[in-house]
Amino acid sequence: MNDSVDKLVIFLAKRDGIDKLVKTFQYVSKLVNWHVEATHPDTSKRFKQWEVASGLSRKAFRTGRFLTGFNVLRRNPGSTLSLRLLAVLSNAGEMVYFFFDHFLWLARIGTIDASLAKKMSFISAFGESVGYVFFIIADFIMLKEGLKAERKLRRSSSKEKSEEEEKAVILKIRSDRIMRLMAVAANLADLFIAIAEIEPNPFCNHTVTLGISGLVSAWAGWYRNWPS
């Protein structure tokens, strides 16, 4: 019990930890609002307010986050030319997303012209979707490389590594695979949300699609950020 509490404290001490928690509030309230809108309008209104407040608070909390892309590229530019290029493109898209998200937040709270909100939202979502596409491609490449490395390790002679060393390497590859699959799930879910803003359509813009996508993204991110 104490270990779980300690992990929760560590998780909530992270910027991403708080973001995933509030994102859960945002999309749970969106789904509840949709579910009770016709039968309990007063309750629906309260959950709608919770959804809007959560979304705006997340934008405020992400102030300056577009700069993290520079740090990611500096610390881990990629092991091959193709991965370096994908890292530049994906992080550039994400930086556009976070940068213009600042102006979207300011427009929605009335600090700047509210008519700019739609334009800022489109630019932000477009950068976001571009970033997610390249993040997903990079993760699939790394998943493929991990599978090849695991197969090669299993075929190789046990004289090169002890059984314990081999198990440790395989465990590391599998742990990385799970994290990358969680990243793919989160990025795909967020891509649906971004597409709903760029090119509105009945499927992506449906409340259930948006709600489930938001929760998949939040909980996949929750898993990735939870202390090991």
Gist of the model:
The chain is mainly alpha-helical and 228 residues long. It has helices spanning 2-13, 15-36, 41-61, 68-75, 81-108, 117-155, 163-198, 207-225.
Please outline the helices and strands.
Blueprint (H helix, E strand, L loop, with lengths): L1 H12 L1 H22 L4 H21 L6 H8 L5 H28 L8 H39 L7 H36 L8 H19 L3
Explain what this protein looks like in three dimensions.
- Keywords: Membrane, Peroxisome, Peroxisome biogenesis, Transmembrane, Transmembrane helix.
- It is a multi-pass membrane protein.
- It comes from Glycine max (Soybean).
- It holds the Pfam family PEX11.
- The protein starts with a helix and ends with a helix.
- The chain is built from 8 helices and no strands.
- It has one domain.
- The radius of gyration is 20 Å and the shape is globular.
- The protein is an all-alpha fold and 228 residues long.
- The model has no long low-confidence stretch (mean pLDDT 92).
